[in-house]
Specification:
2 helices; 56 residues; mainly alpha; 89% helix
Amino acid sequence: MDKKAKKRIDVLNVRLQKLRQQLAGARKQMDEPAEVARLEKELAEVSAELEKLKGS
């Protein structure tokens, strides 16, 4: 794994952690149900990219 891929993995891990916190907060408030769906979709996309990078 090259340096660029490792940096991208680090960035994605930080982003995943932040998204999980936002999702937990959005589920507690439920002011905007669309926000929960958006965050879940974004979380899935980031997770997929992270798995792809770790696999290569």
